[in-house]
Design goal:
Number of domains: 3
CATH superfamily of the largest domain: PPM-type phosphatase domain
Strand content: 15-25%
Structural class: alpha+beta
CATH topology of the largest domain: Phosphatase 2c, domain 1
CATH class of the largest domain: Alpha Beta
Number of helices: 10
Radius of gyration: 34 Å
Shape: elongated
Order of helices and strands: HHEEEHEHEEEHEEEHHEEEEEEHHHE
Amino acid sequence: MTLPADPVEQLKEAELAVARLEAERDRLEAERDRLEGIVVRLGALAAEVDAEGLVQGVTAAARDLTGATLAMFVPTELAALSQPTIVCEPAALDELPEPSRVPLLAGTLWRVSPVRLDDALQADAGSTGYGRFSDGNPFRSWVGAPVRARYGDALGALFIAHQCPHAFGRREEEMAQGLAAHLGTSLDNLAIFQERSGVARALQQTLLPPELPEIPGVDVAARYRPAKSMAPVGGDFYDIFEVRPGVWNLIVGDVSGVGPEAAALTGIARYAVRALASQEASPAKVLSQLNDTLVRFGLQDRFCTILYAELRLDGDVLRMKMANGGHPYPYLLHADGWVEELDVHGTLLGMLNEVALEERDLELAPGDSLVGYTDGVTEARDPSGAFFGPDGLADVLAGCAGRPASWVAQKIELAVLEYQAGVTPDDVAIVVMQALPEQVG
């Protein structure tokens, strides 16, 4: 005959079972949070533009995901890293591992599949290079996964290690292999990005004058800020050059689009204007001939806008002739603070066979400043979507009277940047030409 269980004992057992379930729930929740954190870290690494930071992040994730004591990336010459990356608690490491000196591990650098070593002490007794744990014993469990670029070039190997034997199984091996593949693709993409960025920077430098010329009687300043976009080459440009003795030309232009196509059109426009200006003194005729040149190139939907001016000292007067190919109207900041918009009309260039271009003459009195800019200034938007607009530019200029050209140009740039809360979705180019009082008048 079985006696009924003691209700008190039953309650205690139930409470213990509940406590065990709650502890297991807490453990699983903590593990979930840990894994979610690693996934978020790996996702953020996709935007990493520094090779060392990328390798450090993936190597740390390999250790955390597999429960390894140590993880390390050993690079080849193609990885653009000179030293291995090691992730391990400093107190746990007595001697650095050198997998490239260990025959059973070194082959990982050239293989296409992972290597797993369950017990280095048993399989390769007496060999050095496995590194030592803080108790003096070697790291005994190893997994090595090759890191390869998109087309198979060996970039290095990702290793995980543990001081205990048989610490890793197929799960850890597959994780290491997956992370190695992720790292290889990311390093490859980063190398391509850095190469293209370098080419883009070099190309952009050819589209802007390396330095501004010194013009007698004129204070000249310019500011250029490229857009924060995926395309590192913008379509905004400016140029100032002496076309004939004592005669200088100013160009401020904007090409539709960004990237290499825009850069190609920018180069055509800039150097075509230089060539045409040497043969033609009328700004309107120069832009008309430039339009013919662009149309002949068959640029389809691409076009450009250009503000073009010719200036010269005539005795004690600074004279300008100006034409405008669909570009935002320039401003004249008078020495007394009056801000005047110069509504010089004209058709944008490169789209139509025939264009209508107005030509305007003006004089700059001592202290007057001509301000040319691209639409990245007036079309800047604040967080609510409101445009900076011509009125915003005029308000900034009203407080710039009596300031040198460099101060005016920088003031405009900073005002636009502040208006957009630091975001620059479009290129910004600004040129200021100021008649010097001591030279003119």
